[in-house]
Amino acid sequence: MEEQQILLPSKIDNTDDCSCEEWSDSSSCSSYYSDSDSSIPEWESSISSTGELLFIDCDPVVSHTNVHTEKENLNFSKENSARHSTRSKFLKLLRRRDSKRRSKRYVKSQDASTNPDTNKVKFQDHEEGEIREVILNIDQRNRKLGRRATLVESILGLTVSTLSDGCRIMVAGFIPDSEAAKQKNIKIGDWLKCVNDIELTYQNLNSVLEQVSSENEVVLRLQRVAGIEVTKNPPINELSNQSNFVQQLVNSKADEINIISSILCEHSVGVLYINTESISETGPEFEGILYCYPRPFEKNLLCSSRGVFITLNHLLHEITQCKPQVTSFLWNNRLSHVAYTSFGNKLLLFMLPDNRASIKEILLENKEITRMLEFMYQTIDGCFESDLFKEQLDHFFSRFFTRLLCSGLWPKAEQSVELFNITSKAQQQGPQQFEDVLSVAHSLILPDEAQMQIDSALTELESSDYREWNEEPLDCQRLFTFLGSALYHSGYLLASHLVHGDLIDIHIFCRQQGLFHLSRTEPVRTLVLWREVFPLSCNRNIENQSNSTVVPEGRRYLLVVGSGKDILAALMEAGGCTEPAEDNMGPDAFYVEEAQATLAHLQDIGISNLADHWIANNPGLQVAIPEIPIKRKTDFLGTISFSKTSYNTKETASPIQKKQEVTSILKRRTPDQSTLSSASSFYSLADDNSEIHSEDSLSQGGYSERSESDEPVLGRRATREKRNYMESDEESDIEDYRDGSYSNSSYDITELRQSLLAETADIKPQYLTAGNENVLFHYVQLDTIEGILLCPPENQYNSKTLENVLSNFRKCALQIHGVFQNTLRFKQMLSQDMAKSVINKSLIAIKEYGVLFECTATDEPSRKYGKLTYWVIGRLFYVPHPRELYICYQDTIPQNIIEIAFKLGISD
Amino acid sequence: MSAHVVCITSGGGLPIFTRKKGNAETLPFSMIGSLNGVHMFAKAQRLELLNSLMEDHCAVWKEFHDSILLIGISSGCTIQVLNKLLESVFNAMILVVGIDAIKAQRNIERLKRELRLCYPIVDRLLDSLDCGDTTNKHSSDLIMMVETILCTENHLIRIVLESYTECVDSVYSCILIHGKIAVATESWWDLHPDEIKLLSLLATIENTTNSKDIPVFLPHKSPNVAYRFVAVMLIPNVQICCLCGPTPLLEEIEHSAAQCFKSTLELLESALRCHPRNFPHSLDAEFGILGILLISIKYGKYMISRHPTRTSAKPSGNGFHRLDILRTFYYQAVMGALVPDNWENISTSSNKREQSKKADKKEERNVKKSNKMECTVNTETYWCSEYHKCHAIIVDDNVLCVLYNSTIPTYSMRFITPRVLKTLATDKQLCW
Predict the structure, then answer these.
(1) Biological process GO terms, please (chain B) (predicted)?
(2) B348 to chain A, minimum CA–CA distance in Å?
(3) CB A288 within 8 Å of CB A276
(4) Are A292 and A265 in contact (CB under 8 A)?
């Protein structure tokens, strides 16, 4: 109540220049604005005239490892949670207040982060200044600094920060007693230009240091930055906060696009949309071209040779009665492909070089781009024919093609998307792709408890039920209905409440627009995106589906909000049961804030941390790291992979988590690990564990019960598990369930977060493959109907063998996927078409396809090594809807892929 | 279920011949002209048009020596196979008229007339496409490889063949049973696989006379100088072929053939009984095996059988269907994966074994972006369909593809296939 009263005046201020009537109209909505401090949202100025919005705000100084951010987050939410101890049914209320408070705190934390250390100095830099070279011995002992230490700290003994452009590295301090601290020539505030003649930027810092980490000596080149000015609040240029990538996303500078365009003309990339009907001999030279990129027309390969493709499209159809899909040709001795898509008389051509996209890949890319454009602009016609979108399309395609030519892939952070040396990069063979070219969302399945929390938070957002919150009766119609929403964490789908087709649409959109890449690599503080979209479920192709259910008139909008690594995408509808939509409608601050609050709530209860933890440790289904076996030691592989996993677990765990981890390691002790550790250490661990538990039980009310009941079981269970792993699995599942319901019955945010993490600890590593050792290297479960893909999170191990194995896996899986399409196509074929079809009859019923690879070391010490043999197997399931499973495992004992699919199914 | 091959002079765009297979209509001239025109226009734009892919069809353009353009359009098969077909068709053209006549093109009408000889060969080559129609009686043809027959008598026949080869003053000779090579001399196997294949086809087509004496240009060995290819029919369906110089005369060759094989006629007759099965009755495959395909990468030869088990001896129309499945399996899953693409270039050189291994590695390395540490090869692959299972393994230079009943457990295929391969490849009598 009080809030409302405070709120209203500020609203009036804000809408001063509005007429009174208008004000009263909008007041019912705008009075919900809970942000009392700043009623104008920071993104408001970025809204374009068409109502579209893309606002990205990043933290200017970036912490180097995610461990740091995690820690900050944890502290932050700890203090936060200490204030609230309300029961779950008040969570919602809490959340509202919370969001308001945060906005204040955000301002504070923003200050803190722009100036992380008040006694830290910032320097204005000038180009002149003496350059010095310093030879630094790398002391291998310094590696002991602890796992928290960043690479710079552990290798060079320096702490660094960035200069005001956010890119160049500045020496910010020394690690006490380090080699660097003793060097007189290194001064705080120096610009660290090069290490061993490799130029340093913030982006390549870690990768460069990794390269030199094994050497004993490095040469640092430093430059004294003149004109020192010590400031507490340095004037940070708006743009300087943004990395290249963010700038690319947000800005579309015409001159930059022109430069890119002219560079791209030298490569076999391009997109062309032509009207094939209106072409006549007498017309002007480039008649019928509706859209073309890169430009100018004269230099565009597709454009100048469009006659070939128009003729082929027509001719081959006449000869064979089916439409051409792709044509390959050599240009400057480089193999390239052009994919066709026909829309009536109009033809869309899409060209990529073979070393970046094979025939299979270009077909998938083409499909995905077309679908994304339809999602964004309703029809391909509407998208290319209107001049309104030309700039947007140019911007998109320039980014798309440069990405494809430079780095090929989104996901890895190191692959910075840069324009220089594009020509040399474009010559290289692109990496094999499988998971990333399919139009499916890689989903991460969190424990049930966390899943439930996410679901309930999303449902609450979607329900838009504000009665409890607002005691005044509502007398206005809502602006929007939520059609659904989805939550992502660094590109992994955590939960989706969308119709399958819409999920695929939104996923494709976010991926191709680089939002996932953004959330993975950039320190995003706020991301808000708003635009009108045309989801598949809402009359996109009316003429195609005449008998489908009629969807009410209305317009749909996509709202994406992001913070940190999390992204929440929501599909909203105006019209229908809500207020009819206006043209060029911009985002409504209230709904944006609602979504942001939901996201903040989810981060608060620890979903974000949990997902991070989950991605890093993969506690559920285990995959092994392939190694070429050394002869005589056949069981080497299994033990290595296991110890690596547990090591990694410890590394990223927060203090509280760590204690839990001790338990978890004990619990998940499997036969082969118990052989690793001696009996004595086993007991000492058990002792520690009991102490920790009593500690825990003091601090956490509801939790003690559980640990007490657990304690006596521990020894017995451990031995029992040692005897029979599978048997105990079943029983403990029931216990887990009971535990879950305990923690569920009464909790506040702290408890909730604890229990979420605790549940992680309880998850036992599961093996999909039969046999004692884990021989599974990779799995992909593909569901193209639901648009979901399940596979282990991206690994962090730097193993060449693994890279090799995965590359083979992807190549092979794509081939298998192609073969399965025949089977699916035949299943869907009508019986009268079957006789007419010229499909190869030997290919119509294939449901499983396997390939055995044999990998040997070819270097001279190869006698020491044996062979690594592994299977890549794909399997197609039809019922209830088509699903494909691909696995890659070491060839030891025969595995049954149906059994694996079943195990994977129940582990979901 | 259709395939077209069009041959056009690349300079003038004059059509030289078109051949087709299946129930499609002949391509009208306007379409042939457009197909050529597209390629020509692309060339002017500095593009070399290679191929186009449709849902079930593919089209391939291939230009040879800047003088001949071959265009192939087919349903059901892959671009890789169609490419090989066009290469083979061009080789067949060389076989008949020699490379010089094709390059020079002094008199197109004469060239057209001379090339008519190769139509039957081209038609047979078209049969090796896996269009997926089961009515094809030549489902056993594999592209760029020669079919063989494994008889228990082979080792005995070989001795006789060697003495015959000396008689006709040659080193190249072989014995064909139903058009499949039973035995051949070492030098015969040293020829390029496609040459061996084309010669076998040449011997079997249009068998109106007992003996043939045709001048041939070997596309790889001697594209400019013609050899004499002499095929003598000893008894029906058994032919003795040899390559020789201007001497001896055909009568002399016929005479020495009769002399040398006089005493071995019985052997040949018993070898003939091997025919539809293609490998000896004494070897019985395990229950559940519906067909086998044995391939030697080194020599580019294969043996395919659709009645491997004696119990299923009842004649059934399914047999051809089985061959089709095996062939599609080979084209789609084995060729290019288990068998590296460039093996035929290697097989002509002397130190074959070493070379082919090296080439394997080289190929793999290219794929793996010059990963120096490790090299990966495929050694096994399988398909499970609703009705059948296919399994292939490669051991040294031999590939064995086996078609199983769908009731066979997948894991047991891995035990049966190597056993079958071992039996077939190590049997000295069969001369594999």
Answers:
(1) non-motile cilium assembly; vesicle-mediated transport
(2) 26
(3) yes
(4) no
Span A406-424, pLDDT tens digits: 765 544 433 344 555 666 6
Alpha-carbon distance values, B395 to A234, B167, B279, B296, B412 (Å): 70, 37, 20, 10, 18
Please identify which residue in the block is written with the tokens 């009268």: A832
A7 contacts A33 by C-beta, under 8 angstroms: yes
In this prediction, residue B119 has a pLDDT band, given cuts at 50, 70 and 90, of very high
User: pTM of the entire structure?
Assistant: 0.74
Q: What are the helix (H) ranges across A407-473? A: 422-425, 448-463
Residues of B in contact with A833 (CB under 8 A): none
CA B239 to chain CA mean position, Å: 18
Contact B215, B96 (CB under 8 A): no
What are the E-state strand segments in A667-767? none
The CATH architecture annotation of domain A252-425 reads: 2-Layer Sandwich (3.30)
Would you call A852 and B51 a contact, using CB atoms and an 8 Å cutoff? no
Please state whether A455 falls in left (phi above 0), alpha (psi between -120 and 50) or beta. alpha
A391: left (phi over 0), alpha (psi -120 to 50) or beta: alpha
What pLDDT is stored for residue A696 in this prediction?
Answer: 37
Query: pLDDT digit string (tens) for B6-42?
Result: 999 988 889 999 998 887 788 899 999 999 999 999 9
Which of these, B393, B165, B394, B420, lies nearest to B291 by C-alpha position? B420
CB within 8 Å of A348: residues ≥ 6 apart:
A271, A272, A273, A340, A341, A342, A370, A380, A384
More confident residue, A67 or B216: B216
8 Å CB contact of B410 and A894: yes
Confidence of residue A662 (pLDDT cuts 50, 70, 90): very low
Q: Is the pLDDT of residue B279 over 60?
A: yes
Q: Which of A308, A354, A425, A856 should be substituted to probe chain B, the one whose Cβ sees the most B Cβ atoms within 10 Å? A: A308
CB nearest B368 (choices: A320, A804, A852):
A804
* A17: Cβ contacts below 8 Å, ≥ 6 apart: none
Query: Using a CB-CB distance cutoff of 8 angstroms, which residues of chain B are in contact with residue A311?
Result: 34, 37-38, 41
Reported as a single tens digit per residue, the pLDDT across A247-269 is 666 666 667 777 778 888 888 88
- Check whether B379 has a pLDDT greater than 80: yes
A6: tokens are: 């405070």
Q: B382–A848: do the CB atoms touch at under 8 Å?
A: yes
- Interface size A-B, in CB pairs within 8 Å, comes to 187
Q: In this structure, what DSSP letter does residue A843 have?
A: G
Angle at A336 between CA A308 and CA A328, to 5 degrees: 50
Percent of chain A with pLDDT over 70: 58
Contact across the interface for A855 and B378, Cβ inside 8 Å: no
Q: In this predicted model, what pLDDT tens digit does every residue of B178-203 receive, in sequence order?
A: 889 999 999 999 999 999 999 999 99
Specify the pairing of strand A441-442 against strand A788-790: parallel
Asked if B379 and A854 come within 8 Å (Cβ–Cβ), the reply is yes
User: What is the CATH T-level fold of the domain A131-229, as seen in this structure?
Assistant: Pdz3 Domain (2.30.42)
B130, B377, B384 member nearest A848 (Cβ): B384
Distance from CA of A541 to the nearest CA of B (A): 23
Average pLDDT over residues A30-57: 65
> What are A671's two structure tokens?
């036969």
Looking at the DSSP assignment, which residues form a beta bridge with residue B60? B51, B72
The residue of chain B with its CA nearest to that of A360 is: B53
Domains of chain B: 2-126 (3.30.450.70), 153-272 (3.30.450.30), 289-430 (3.30.450)
Residue A134 in this model has a pLDDT that exceeds 80? no
Range A756-780 burial, b when 16+ CB lie within 10 A, else e: bbbbbbbbbbbbbbeeebbbbbbbb
